[in-house]
Design a protein that fits this description.
The protein is an alpha/beta fold. It folds into two domains: 114 residues, 2,3-Dihydroxybiphenyl 1,2-Dioxygenase, domain 1, CATH 3.10.180.10; 153 residues, 2,3-Dihydroxybiphenyl 1,2-Dioxygenase, domain 1 (Roll), CATH 3.10.180. Helix content is 18%, strand content 32%. The chain has six helices and 17 strands. The protein has a nine-stranded mixed beta sheet. Strands 2-3-4-1-5-8-7-6 form an eight-stranded mixed beta sheet, covered by helices on one side. Strand 2 and strand 3 form a beta hairpin. It is globular, with a radius of gyration of 19 Å. The model has no long low-confidence stretch (mean pLDDT 93). It binds fe (ii) ion (FE2). The site of fe (ii) ion has 6 residues, from strand 9 and strand 13.
Length: 332
């Protein structure tokens, strides 16, 4: 299906995404979330400004999580890396031609992580940041046998229109669909990782969960053990998914948002990979047979609350730009 507000399928994407850098979350109590991610989850608090906090993993990004105060839980921004400031400028020109709204024109980012970037708004109101030349940090080796995340592996987004949202992320942002899980989920990559974004067809747009990559399956299990020692047990997992072949174990943070430890994400060879559609059977969703079905509690946390994002900040969008959200009465 073609969408009139998107570039024609023959047009090149506006940019080439290199990697997923970070996610910004708005939560009512950012101090509680900071304490959880810093003291329990394994991230390190790297900077703060009032009640805004930046936390890093052990990889190359200045930060992977940006916590901000908000009236209710919301996904504030997803940040992707471009290679150079020139690519940011080129993306801005292409976005303008395609009538895709930008919240922020290209320029220096006054954020804790520095860099040069822009922000655009996707058809469900999510803010997407494209940045280059962010501050360098040295990678950190975990002390001793402590298991801590290396980076954000993926973000799963609930969408009210998976076909249209997938079309945006592939046609505009140049992502590739690695696999489908029936027509319920789409797994999108921007580099060799099987997916950095997954879309889940749902009643409304919201954050489903954020996955943090552990360096090995041994660290994945040790991480679960660290949490268990603190009285925190997985709400779903451990197990190994079919699509992406990655391990999973899901928890909820103090805001009620879902966070995941994962490891061993499948690596894709662009020249030989063929997208498949997975059937949604227990054997394919949970290859080891260890996790069982997700509980109603974790399903509810993954559904979250409707998140209209930055729609209200976009002045005079094209009439057909934003995806409509079904009335609550239509929600099953
Ligand atoms: Fe996940």
């Amino acid at each position: 299906m073609l969408y009139s507000h998107l570039p024609s399928p023959t047009a090149a994407p506006v940019c080439r995404l290199r990697s997923l850098r970070s996610v910004a979350l708005s939560v009512p109590d950012p101090v509680a979330s900071r304490d959880f991610y810093h003291e329990v989850w394994g991230l390190s608090a790297v900077d703060e400004d009032g009640d805004r906090f930046w936390l890093r993993a052990t990889g190359t990004e200045h930060h992977v999580l940006d916590l901000r105060p908000g009236d209710q839980n919301a996904l504030s921004c997803i940040s992707f890396a471009l290679a150079t400031p020139r690519e940011v400028d080129d993306a801005a020109r292409a976005l303008e031609i395609a009538s895709i709204p930008m919240l922020r024109d290209p320029g220096p980012l006054d954020d804790a992580g520095g860099g040069y970037g822009l922000q655009l708004v996707d058809p469900e109101g999510r803010t997407i940041e494209l940045s280059a030349d962010t501050f360098a940090v040295s990678t950190q080796e975990p002390a001793g046998r402590r298991a801590v995340p290396r980076k954000i592996a993926h973000v799963v987004l609930n969408t009210a229109d998976i076909e249209r949202t997938a079309a945006f992320y592939t046609q505009v942002l140049g992502m590739r669909i690695s696999d489908w899980s029936e027509r319920q989920m789409a797994f999108l990559r921007c580099n060799a990782d099987h997916h950095v974004i997954a879309l889940n067809q749902a009643a409304w747009p919201s954050l489903n969960h954020i996955a943090y990559e552990m360096t090995s399956i041994d660290h994945f299990m040790r991480g679960i053990g660290n949490l268990r020692a603190g009285g925190i047990t997985p709400q779903w997992g451990p197990g190994r998914h079919g699509p992406g072949d990655n391990t999973f174990s899901y928890f909820t943070d103090p805001a009620g948002l879902v966070c995941e430890y994962t490891s061993e994400v499948a690596q894709i060879d662009e020249d030989s990979w063929l997208c498949r559609t997975w059937r949604r059977t227990p054997e394919l969703s949970d290859q080891w047979g260890t996790a069982g079905p997700p509980s109603t509690t974790i399903r509810s946390a993954m559904a979250g609350i409707p998140d209209l994002g930055a729609r209200h900040l976009v002045t005079a969008p094209r009439a057909d730009y934003f995806v409509g959200i079904p009335e609550p009465a239509g929600v099953s």
